[in-house]
Amino acid sequence: MSEAVYILCALTSLVCAVLLVRAYRRNGVPLLFWSALCFLALSLENVVLFLDVFIFPEVNLTVPRRLVALGGLSLLLYGLIWKTK
So where are the chain's domains? Predict the structure, then answer.
């Protein structure tokens, strides 16, 4: 059952990223683009979490998982600080 929760979290993040990209293409607001990149990275982090817990439990993927999340949040922070009008 917990496998489904991890998969649903990844899918939810991916759907949010797709919706943000669609809104960015329609409106052209840069913050939507940076938010979409952040959600895409968070979706990837959830996939790595699923791999870490269920597929490769003997391998510790904590550091790559955290780096992906840090990269996504860094993209959002960059967009908030330097690319927003």
Answer: 2-82
Residues of the chain by 3-state class (helix, strand, coil), percent to 5: 85, 0, 15
Per-residue pLDDT 10s for the chain (85 aa) are 889 999 999 999 999 999 999 999 999 999 999 999 999 999 999 999 999 999 999 999 999 999 999 999 999 999 999 876 6
- State the Cα angle at 8 between 23 and 20, rounded to 5°: 10
CB 33 within 8 A of CB 79: yes
| Tokens (6 digits) for 16 | 């949010």
Match 């597929």 to its residue by tokens. 55
Whole-model pTM: value is 0.91
